[in-house]
Design goal:
There is one protein chain. This protein has about 325 residues and is of the alpha+beta class. It has three domains: about 1-115, no CATH class; about 145-200, ATP-grasp fold, A domain (Dna Ligase, domain 1, 2-Layer Sandwich), CATH 3.30.1490; about 205-305, 2-Layer Sandwich (D-amino Acid Aminotransferase, Chain A, domain 1), CATH 3.30.470.20. The protein has eight helices and 16 strands. The protein has helices spanning about 10-20, 90-110, 120, 130-135, 150-160, 245-255, 285-295, 295-305, and strands spanning about 1-5, 25-30, 40-45, 50-55, 60, 65-70, 115, 145, 165, 175, 195-200, 205-210, 215-220, 235-240, 260-270, 275-280. The strands form four sheets. The protein has a five-stranded antiparallel beta sheet with strand order 14-13-12-15-16, with helices on both faces. A four-stranded parallel beta sheet has the order 2-1-6-7, with helices on one face. Strand 1, helix 1 (about 10-20) and strand 2 form a beta-alpha-beta unit. Helix 1 (about 10-20) packs across helix 8. The longest helix has 20 residues, at about 90-110. The chain is globular, with a radius of gyration of 22 Å.
Length: about 325
């Protein structure tokens, strides 16, 4: 039995639920917008973890779940918990929802079933420089400077010529290429340390790892950050790609090292055939890639959560 947590209409979660239905895999959906109609109880006795999750008028044993796919959003951002024009949210309902979400999150950290993904390993993405150190054990990474010193940034830019910059936090940001016009606002980094990287020529690749399976996508676009290419009316083309065995195995090994059984790895292949890794997304919006290329990422995800696939350092799809 698979437990899905989040907003069921959100594309990544919706695709996974649809895959579970199509593959006839037992599943339960915890719609966090309906948290006020749910309840949870967790108990630990002599090292054995038990509990129940009640959704509407049905109750499920927590130990009966083989896997959990969670894309829970901040409860403070839920419409039910935000003020409306003439009414304030129900404080008691918010408190109850907060308790339920926290208990559920705590259980997922220690549950013996497969969880995609637990909060502790996902925290490696809170600091991109820290995550880059872990990535460097498997892949080359661009020459990087993290600084709040404008002079240091200028020196780095002069040394490397083409440079891109982005946020160092886990908050999603647009990767931009440095231009002379940016010099006028460089002083702002004194209050906001920024990551500068030497520009790597080549082709962007997104690799989704699901347990020991991989799904690689090649992205062709003139945009520096292809995720936002449409804002600049720049075209993006995607195609399924078969990675060299060595690179595929490194991707799986990296996901194991980060304890992220489901992740999105951003690579770039240079004209010389070298591979650079920029970051690993611990909660990838894979639907964007699946809907474009037709790769069955959601199927692999629910099969993993159902316990149908093994997890090791080998790449079963190669």
């Amino acid at each position: 039995m698979i437990l899905f947590c989040g907003i069921p209409t959100e594309p990544p979660l919706a695709l996974a639920i649809e895959a579970a239905q199509r593959l006839q895999l037992g599943h339960v959906v915890f719609n966090q917008r309906h948290a006020r109609f749910c309840n949870i109880a967790v108990d630990s006795h002599l090292g054995e973890l038990t509990g129940t999750l009640r959704i509407a008028d049905r109750e499920w044993c927590l130990e009966g779940f083989s896997g959990v796919y969670t894309r829970l959003m901040d409860i403070n951002a839920l419409p039910e918990n935000r003020p409306r024009r003439y009414t304030k949210p129900d404080d008691a309902a918010i408190l109850r929802s907060s308790f339920l979400h926290q208990t559920l999150a705590d259980w997922m950290e220690i549950a013996t079933c497969r969880v995609v993904n637990r909060a502790a390993p996902m925290s490696t993405n809170v600091s991109k420089p820290y995550q880059a150190q872990m990535i460097s054990r498997f892949f080359s990474t661009p020459t990087t400077l993290v600084t709040n010193d404008p002079d240091a940034a200028i020196e780095f830019i002069k040394r490397h010529g083409r440079v891109v910059y982005k946020s160092v936090s886990s908050i999603r940001s647009i990767v931009r290429e440095w231009s002379a016009a940016d010099a006028a606002k460089l002083y702002k980094i004194r209050w906001l340390p920024t990551q500068f990287q030497s520009f790597v020529e080549g082709v962007n690749l997104r690799v989704h790892v699901v347990g020991s399976k991989i799904f690689a996508t090649q992205i062709s676009s003139a945009a520096v950050d292809y995720r936002y290419a449409t804002r600049e009316d720049i075209e993006v083309e995607m195609m399924e790609l078969e990675l060299p065995l060595e690179i595929a195995e490194k991707c799986v090994a990296l996901s194991v090292e980060l304890q992220l059984p489901f992740c999105g790895i951003d690579l770039k292949r240079t004209p010389e055939g070298n591979y650079y890794c920029f970051e690993v997304n611990p909660s990838p919006a894979y639907s964007y890639y699946q809907e474009t290329t037709g790769q069955p990422i959601a199927d692999a995800l629910v099969e993993y959560l159902a316990g149908r696939t093994e997890v090791d350092h080998e790449c079963s799809s190669c």
